[in-house]
Amino acid sequence: MSRSVLFVCLGNICRSxxxxxxxxxxxxxxxxxxxxxxxxxxxxxxxHAPDERAQMVAMKxxxxxxxxxxxxxxxxxxxxxxxxxxxxxxxxxxxxxxQPRNSVARLSLLLDHVEGRAGEDVVDPxxxxxxxxxxxxxxxxxxAASIRQLLQTG
Length: 154
Ligand code: 4NP
Fold this sequence. Notes:
The structure is a single chain. By secondary structure, this protein is an alpha/beta fold. The protein has five helices and four strands. A four-stranded parallel sheet has the order 2-1-3-4, with helices on both faces. α1 (15-29) crosses α5. It is globular. It binds 4-nitrophenyl phosphate (4NP). 4-nitrophenyl phosphate is lined by residues 9-15, 44, 124, 126.
């Protein structure tokens, strides 16, 4: 259970699929068996593939995310995942509000896992230009490196 991570953003088509891909990429390289998934707090994009710009930036970095499909976060996720990691403060507030009282899942922000950036939001690239997705990938890879270490050390 502790070796399971759920990344959460608003739509589950831009930031959280990239965070999922970055951590899976690093865990695979390290030979680490971790259950990794992503979800959205909203339901607008349920069943959709990641945004094409997110697919492109992942592909450019050697990861294919075309098969991923958006889903909405559920109460069961707080039982099934040891770590639930939000992309921004609003996502974190929404998750905190829905976490069942008996859940021991640890909630945090993605950038809490990057030295010197605790409390920062991952900027939502959805309404911006393609470069925004490169920035998201960078943030996701930085955080993935320390999340991987956290999982390795328990
Ligand atoms: P995400 O980006 O939360 O990183 O997946 C968004 C995707 C879609 C919308 C907002 C943010 N939307 O409003 O449809």
